[in-house]
Amino acid sequence: MVEQVGFGNIWELKLSDFPQLKERWHDQLPFNFCRILANLTVDDCAFVSNAIPSNLLQFMNNLRHLYVRNCDSLEEVFDLEGLNAEEGHAQLLPNLKELQLIDLPRLRDICSRDPQGILDFKNLKSLKVHNCSSLRDLFTPSTASGLVQLNKIEIRNCAMMEKIITEERVEEAATYRIIFPVLKVIVLESLHSMTSIYSGTGILGIPSLEEIGIDNCPNLKTFISSFLSEHVPISVNKGQGYRLRERDHDISTAPSLNHKVSFFI
Hints:
The protein has five helices and 15 strands. It is of the alpha/beta class. The relative contact order is 0.09.
């Protein structure tokens, strides 16, 4: 049993520090093993397809910080197999504040099906995604609508990333109003396939945005033009100026806006 090797009632865990536990991570571990777990690092797991299996996920409501790193075979972060909101598996991970996904070359989804009603990201404040070369997008519109505390999003070196929020299905095309009420910082770097943050037909609002940095994202030129004309004037308060730069050249200034915007394309 896990308790017999000293893993009962733990607060913080880095899997690579405990090979014995890593080997059993996707087995039937005792449910009370992770009830108070707040900080979890899933790292150096070469042969797992997901970071948190469904049998553990439903008991991780105290989890605050999740770091998933260096897992060569990992294809999704959360396994929702067997979980159904109508059967009591609802609003899981309500306290998750930080999510980092680093060096996951086969990652395709945060979860393989729409987690609406099952996962609750209402307290997620920081999202960092680096070197996930197979990932095309991050959230469905329904999931994005629940990110009411998201403060910073940073995405770097994801070669196939096309957008942050997927398009709606046809029957849902006009139903979503996606507002990130406290999102202040967006960093996008070396995303050669990205064309937009959201290309669906719903409404996207970022009223608290203070800083956006875009570096080496050649297909975002159209998005930049649209962002400047639609989002920036609506989203900011009067204050200090900002500079738009293409490499080392100033493109324009807007002294009435409280934004820091740098584009290196």
